[in-house]
Amino acid sequence: MAFPILYSFRRCPYAMRARMSIVRAQFQVELREVILRDRPEHMMEISPKGTVPVLLLADGTVIEESLEIMQHVLDWTLSEEEQHWVSRNDDEFKFHLDRYKYPNRYEDIDEVEHRTAASLYLMDLDERLASEPGISEALSDALFPFVRQFANHDRDWFDVQLWSHVLEWLAKNLESEAFKVCMKKHKQWVAGDTATTFAPS
Ligand SMILES: N[C@@H](CCC(=O)N[C@@H](CS)C(=O)NCC(=O)O)C(=O)O
């Protein structure tokens, strides 16, 4: 195997954070774009839990959590503060984001209640972004794909909320070259395809 293999899905925020770390570190992988309803056999063999992203290293190690992929690629040890924000994102914010975005997937859901609950996190994040020192690039990359998803659900509403630092931070990330590379489109990988290397050097 020439490069580590990354099973990824373009629109998944967990996969985005993993790809952002790969772009930042100029780490090279063979990218395999997955359609979740048609997961490749090989991916299910190495990671039966069936979520993306999954990184398979040359020595056979499988990393199947996005944050652990970031940590490996960036050689990143999270500070206590970084851990705090990632946990709030992955547990609290993601919980409300899913219920705000996909209320029909749950029973007895009031999407506005979940939007309000998610907004508490965003107000705190806004305050944190306004203070010095700023947050690290790695932490920023671990968080912004989820905020992007929340923002895109109702952009008109999102854009008039009182979180100017979040708006500015999100825009800066979405407009970055690194994010453009991260979001380049790849067709679904099928066994036997020639390898697509990512990130391009
Ligand atoms: N904790 C995992 C979560 C990954 C995850 O849930 N990814 C979603 C896509 S965004 C997925 O693969 N879901 C499986 C499915 O929808 O069947 C991580 O951080 O990598």
Can you describe this structure?
- Strands 4-3-1-2-5 form a 5-stranded mixed β-sheet.
- It has 201 residues and is of the alpha+beta class.
- The chain contains 9 helices and 5 strands.
- Helix 1 packs parallel to helix 3, helix 4 (80-101) packs antiparallel against helix 5 (111-130) and helix 4 packs parallel to helix 6 (137-153).
- The chain folds into 2 domains: 5-75 and 180-198, 3-Layer(aba) Sandwich (Glutaredoxin), CATH 3.40.30.10; 80-176, Glutathione S-transferase Yfyf (Class Pi), Chain A, domain 2 (Up-down Bundle), CATH 1.20.1050.10.
- Helix 1 links the parallel strand 1 and strand 2.
- Residues 9, 12, 14, 36, 50-53, 65-67 line the site of glutathione.
* Alpha-carbon distance between the two ends: 19 Å
Mean pLDDT across every amino acid position: 97
Q: Provide the domain count.
A: 2
SSE order: EHEHEEHHHHHHHE
User: Tell me about the biggest sheet?
Assistant: 5 strands, mixed
Beta strands, count: 5
Give unreliable regions as ranges. Answer: none
> Which ligands appear in the coordinates?
glutathione
Kindly provide the name of the CATH class of the largest domain: Mainly Alpha
By CATH, the architecture of the largest domain is named Up-down Bundle
Topology of helices and strands:
Layout: E1 5-8, H1 13-25, E2 29-33, H2 41-46, E3 54-56, E4 62-63, H3 66-74, H4 80-101, H5 111-130, H6 137-153, H7 155-159, H8 164-174, H9 177-182, E5 197-198
Parallel strand pairs: 1-2
Antiparallel strand pairs: 1-3, 2-5, 3-4
Helix pairs in contact: 1-3, 1-6, 4-5, 4-6, 5-8, 6-8
The structure holds glutathione.
